[in-house]
Amino acid sequence: MDSLIDLVTLARSPETEEEERLRAFDGIVRTCQDMAYAYAYAILGDVHLAQDVAQEAFVTVWRKLRDLDTPATFPGWFRRIIQTQCDYITRRRRLPTSPLSSAAQIPSKAPDPYVLTERREARERVLDAIRSLPEHERTATTLYYVDGYTQNDVASFLGVKATTISTRLHSARRRLSRRLVEMVEVEIQSQRPSRDDSFLRQVGFITANPHLRDLLRDAGRIAARDCPVHIVGESGTGKMALARGIHEVSRRGGKPFVQLFCGEPGVPLESELPRLLTRAAGGTLALDEIDKMPLPAQDGPHDAIGANAEADGHSQGGRRPNVRFIAITNPTLGRDLATEVVEGRFRRDLYEAFAAATIIVPPLRERPEDVPPLAEHLLHTLGASWQRDTPEFAPEAMELLVRYDWPKNVRDLAFALEHALAKCTGTSILPMHLPGAITGYSGTAD
Fold this sequence. Notes:
The protein has three domains: about 1-190, no CATH class; about 195-360, P-loop containing nucleotide triphosphate hydrolases (Rossmann fold), CATH 3.40.50.300; about 365-440, Orthogonal Bundle (Helicase, Ruva Protein, domain 3), CATH 1.10.8. Helices cover about 55% and strands about 5% of the residues. It has 20 helices and seven strands. The chain has a five-stranded parallel β-sheet, sandwiched between helices. The chain is flat and about 65 Å long.
């Protein structure tokens, strides 16, 4: 936490200008907000109360930071502030017996009361599992599974050795079943204060579209579940980038990410799959255009998924690499998987394994508000790679870009901007610099 100590030093110094002090304090909040929430949640067991405590704790820090003896003692000092706030709430407010049950009242796209009941009961089991741990294990588990904190960070915050945290986590895992461990991780991560945009930032997606932002937040939660995933989208929508992002933010992030194009003619997939499964051991195997995979080759991913579901990570036939699968399909080029199942060309059980976590990426023409920020980003990237100043977009040029239907999505947009930058010698991208297909577009399909 060396950078945190630097921020504390700057924020508490009487010589720091007020504007600079505010920036430093903002850095402290961004660095510690998830840790504060998780520590309060470990004590109170209630997501809303924990968020309130974290907010009040930072107000107290702002008021009293200059009273801190030395910056190096900030973690322990901050921890005591949170504890004091939690003690106050415990004394003054009666904790609800089922604090997560209100989640069942959140509107759903498919508000099936039976599904809501199952969700509520599952979350209550998570809370019971966390509460069943001894206090020192409960605190370490809650802090560690907030994304972005290492065991060393947790140890520094709690004022103990990193080996102590490792021991506590190991003991907690023994106490919890494998299923509950996964549920605990998903529940804690989905409630952290920075949850809304963390996945978007990590995978590098640029979007102002509310539907796509919600979809990417869902993808962040799916990443934590370690289940098979099916990504559907047209060419150029970023399906493979999304698959890689899911891999990188998951617990498999430090392991291999391997891609297999299933539609390449002449590739013997039955013999290629075992080799790639070995390469991807512990990581992720992305199956691009899985709808074109021959039926005999589908036994490989089916058996591996079944093996992952076993408690000991083995199938009855022997040891298999533990691999997460991400299936990718393009509705405009391939065949619909559900239709393939009905017509007997795709295994139903394999389809059902992927269908539980399906992400459909909308094409660029359905989110025109994304064109300006994407165009600005792509043009800036091109300018930097060509080592030249980046021109601005003339309003009429941007209007043409927004109106175009982008058959190949972001891939087409990148090609169009490369064309425009090559032709532009001034400080503005004009309509004359854009490809003819864009300037002559009438708004109807060719």
